């Protein structure tokens, strides 16, 4: 933890023996060991609490994101249904307009009778190259 080697620990023990004395040294070592143990436990508890808080924050963010996504999906469904109803209404209106502009099928057959029942056809294509050849021969 403090990155101390055996030689350093031996030096601390010798200084402690000289300063504290041989009678009180075992009790002092025991007390220091207890304090170090408490310090380690406190440090580990603080670390685990911070990790839990960070995890809780991540969970809160994830829940918030899921709520936002759910509201977006609900909005998408609402917009989709509104679009479908608008499309249906528009198509119905266009169909009604088309029916009012175009005559019914019975009127269409009457108009064919008025035209004499003839169909309008396109004129047959002509071969312009033959005409050009005839004109060139004449010249």
From TrEMBL:
This is Sec-independent protein translocase protein TatB. One of its GO terms (biological process) is protein transport by the Tat complex. GO terms for molecular function: protein transmembrane transporter activity. It is found in: Cell membrane; Membrane. Belongs to the TatB family. GO terms for cellular component: TAT protein transport complex. Its main location: membrane. The Tat system comprises two distinct complexes: a TatABC complex, containing multiple copies of TatA, TatB and TatC subunits, and a separate TatA complex, containing only TatA subunits. Substrates initially bind to the TatABC complex, which probably triggers association of the separate TatA complex to form the active translocon. Part of the twin-arginine translocation (Tat) system that transports large folded proteins containing a characteristic twin-arginine motif in their signal peptide across membranes. Together with TatC, TatB is part of a receptor directly interacting with Tat signal peptides. TatB may form an oligomeric binding site that transiently accommodates folded Tat precursor proteins before their translocation.
């Amino acid at each position: 933890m403090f990155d101390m080697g055996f030689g350093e620990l031996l030096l601390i023990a010798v200084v402690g023996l000289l300063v504290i004395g041989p009678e009180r040294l075992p009790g002092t070592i025991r007390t220091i060991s207890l304090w170090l143990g408490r310090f380690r436990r406190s440090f580990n508890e603080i670390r685990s609490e911070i990790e839990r808080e960070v995890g809780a924050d991540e969970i809160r963010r994830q829940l918030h994101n899921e709520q936002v996504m759910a509201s977006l999906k609900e909005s998408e469904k609402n917009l989709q249904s509104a679009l479908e109803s608008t499309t249906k209404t528009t198509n119905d209106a266009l169909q009604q307009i088309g029916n009012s502009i175009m005559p019914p099928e019975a009127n269409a057959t009457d108009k064919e009778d008025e035209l004499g029942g003839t169909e309008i056809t396109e004129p047959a294509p002509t071969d312009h190259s033959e005409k050009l050849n005839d004109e060139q021969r004449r010249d």
